[in-house]
From TrEMBL:
Protein name: ABC transporter
One GO cellular component, as annotated: plasma membrane
Source organism of this protein record: Enterococcus alcedinis
Pfam family, one: ABC_membrane
Coiled coil: none
Length: 585
């Protein structure tokens, strides 16, 4: 089916496990053969009993016992084959899904920052978890189920023709009719399955967003609005989910209806043939069982079609991530010199997020090694964008950014980023010990280096007051330490990485005055003998900067040190004096 084409790509994940999958097919064939023989051998004692009674002879118990033994052997073979096939397919599918999750995680690490700027985190998470689980469940059911069903139908049809060709032709009419019904229903329901999976991703994104900002919702009393938004997204999921399930659910009763019609025709013709002596009663009994051995697999196929449609929609979403354009890698990379001084030059830099909306045009400035550069300006001026360009989260549209004379576009992104340490406004900690969070900046750091970095960041005393000290666990939300303490820990993380160039992005904007002084003192230590870029709204914190760049609408409108800019009486002076007046009030 064209709609299920995304599932074909999953075959590549099964190739490494083709030996195990071959045994799955082998045992599935055994299951189907035993299942196909079961009605026939089950009819043998019935035929013998009917024959003995018709001829007025005593029951042939020896023959009946033998046939019962054969029924037991065939039934046991069926059960064992089915069990082994189930165990092996589970192992094959879960191994394939492990590889798929590994590829997704690897791909995510190669995606540019712009991808996460454009997509909800909750939706990305839904693709990695819910969609992969849907694919996993479908493969586990369908790989055996469909092969089993098709083979069962083939064997049942063969046995029908072995018993009586006319009755067989009457019975197998239901196969093409069932396929036509399935094709029509699938074509109507697939779009609803696609929309359902997209709505599920949207719902996960909405929940993740509201849970992250739950305290803000409570503060501003926006619970009702948040609930209404959830209801709207949830209703969309219910709308598409109901239609997908309802339309796909029509297949089973319609297919069963064709089976009942075939059953009626075979019962009438078969009864006539028994009375005419064309077939014996045991063969009629077996034939009717074969009808159900066709009907049941056809029903299984129709049930699996719903699972496959859902999995197809999920697989499409998963492969959308795997097909995303990765960060471009340079063909000829300049290697990082052994000694990096930290001089940074922006030469005629142009940049825009959208081609028709230029943000930065012809930006030029030079930062000497060891200087502290402050970047100030109103919201949307391009401060954070400038840092993103510096780190090669985005590439410049024109011009060049050079570090010690080397164009960063000619260097590997990982090499460029290895030169930087960052302390962001949103302090991020992960679930683990305090020591592990500090060591994140240098994974092979010794205990002494961890403590030394904490002392430099003025956070050692706080850590030692905690019950378990450096072994204290930071929870998943990172809310069992204060915002200021988290900020100090991120500074310690930057210290331990020993960066050549330091970036401080609004690092003190969300803390009180006492903690601001403590963080500022820590940052001063870290910035010693390092080229540092500081983005700050509080202009009082950057008075001692060697160079202040004043940005507005993507351009540098003023530059100089604090006193020089105040003396000019321009944009910076007005901005500084307005903040000073607010603080005085």
């Amino acid at each position: 089916m064209k709609n299920l084409s995304s599932l074909k790509r999953l075959a590549s994940y099964l190739k490494p496990y083709k030996v195990g999958f071959s045994f799955v097919l082998l045992f599935t064939v055994g299951t189907v053969i035993f299942n196909g023989l079961l009605p026939y051998v089950s009819g043998l004692p019935t035929t013998e009993v009917a024959k003995n009674l018709a001829q007025g002879q005593p029951l042939n118990f020896d023959y009946i016992k033998k046939t019962l033994v054969w029924i037991f052997i065939v039934g046991l073979g069926y059960g064992v084959s089915q069990l082994l096939a189930g165990i092996l397919i589970t192992n094959v599918v879960q191994s394939a899904m492990k590889d798929l999750r590994r590829d997704i995680e690897s791909k995510i690490n190669r995606l540019p920052v712009s991808y996460f700027d454009k997509n909800q985190q909750g939706d990305v998470l839904s693709r990695v978890t819910n969609d992969v689980d849907a694919v996993s469940g479908a493969m586990q059911q369908a790989l055996i189920g469909i092969f089993n069903a098709v083979l069962s139908i083939a064997i049942a049809v063969g046995m029908m023709f072995y018993i009586n060709a006319v009755m067989a032709w009457l019975a197998i009419i239901m196969i093409p009719v069932s396929l036509i019904i399935s094709k029509i229903v699938v074509s109507k329901s697939q779009s609803h399955f696609n929309n359902m999976q997209n709505a599920l991703g949207e719902l996960n994104g909405y929940v993740q967003e509201t849970m992250t900002g739950f305290s803000v919702l409570k503060v501003y009393g926006r619970e009702k609005e948040a609930l209404e938004g959830f209801k709207e997204t949830n209703h969309k999921l219910q709308y598409y989910g109901f239609r997908a399930a309802f339309i796909s659910g029509l297949m089973m009763p319609l297919v069963q209806l064709t089976a009942y019609l075939a059953y009626i025709m075979v019962a009438v013709v078969g009864g006539f043939y028994v009375m005419s002596g064309v077939i014996v009663v045991g063969q009629l009994q077996a034939f009717i069982q074969y009808i159900w051995q066709i009907s049941q697999p056809m029903g299984n196929i129709t049930q699996l079609s719903a699972v496959l449609q859902s999995a197809s929609a999920s697989a499409k979403r998963v492969f959308e991530i795997l097909d995303e354009q990765e960060e471009t890698q340079n063909e000829f990379n300049l290697s990082v010199p052994e000694t990096v001084h930290g001089e940074v030059v922006f030469e005629n830099v142009d940049f825009s997020y959208a081609p028709d909306k230029p943000l930065i045009e012809n930006l030029n400035f030079t930062v000497k090694a060891g200087q502290t550069v402050a970047i100030v300006g109103p919201t949307g001026a391009g401060k954070t964008t400038l840092i993103n360009l510096l780190m090669r989260f985005y590439d410049v549209s024109a011009g060049a950014i050079k570090i010690d004379g080397l164009d960063t576009k000619q260097m590997a992104r990982s090499d460029v980023r290895s030169l930087f340490g960052m302390v962001l406004q949103d302090a991020w900690l992960y679930e683990g010990t305090i020591a592990d969070n500090i060591r994140f900046g240098k994974l092979d750091a010794t205990e002494y280096e961890v403590v030394d970095a904490a002392k430099t960041a003025n956070v050692d005393h706080f850590i030692r007051t905690m019950p378990e000290g450096y072994d204290m666990l930071i929870n998943a939300e990172g809310d069992n330490v204060s915002l200021g303490q988290k900020q100090l820990l991120t500074i310690a993380r930057a210290v331990i990485s020993d960066p050549k160039i330091l970036i401080l992005d609004e690092a003190t904007s969300s803390v009180d005055t006492r903690l601001e002084a403590l963080i500022q003192k820590a940052m001063d230590k870290v910035m010693e003998n390092r080229t540092s870029f500081v983005i700050a709204h509080r202009l009082s914190t950057i008075r001692d900067a060697d160079l202040i760049l004043v940005m507005d609408k993507g351009s540098i409108i003023e530059q100089g040190n604090h006193l020089e800019l105040l003396a000019k009486g321009g944009f910076y002076a007005n901005l500084y004096n307005s903040q000073f007046s607010e603080e005085a009030e």
